[in-house]
Amino acid sequence: MEYDLTRDILPELPWEKKKNEQKTQQRVEIFYFSLTTCVYCKKGISFLQDNKFNFNLMYLDKLDLVQKKAIKTYIQSKYKLNTRMASPFVIFRLDGDDFISNGYDPDYWKSKLR
């Protein structure tokens, strides 16, 4: 399985939608790649939920190996990562621009979620 880098595939991936009914307007779209066993991933999910953000969640370790590898290859190529994809890996889409966080970094996240 390969993904085309010339088009945005993020909305098409198999996301779990995490919605907060209290949050009516949100300028940023959040794509959250996680592992079920990662303590920092869990901290990040709690951070987003505590701050009442809607986000798209994907547990990479629940995917089959072919799909997981294809998604990781797509992310590494699209965002030109010099290192491996860390957990959690978060994409903040704000006004058409993507900002990434390669790991748990709540201070950086706050700067993108205002």
UniProtKB/TrEMBL annotation:
Protein name: Glutaredoxin domain-containing protein
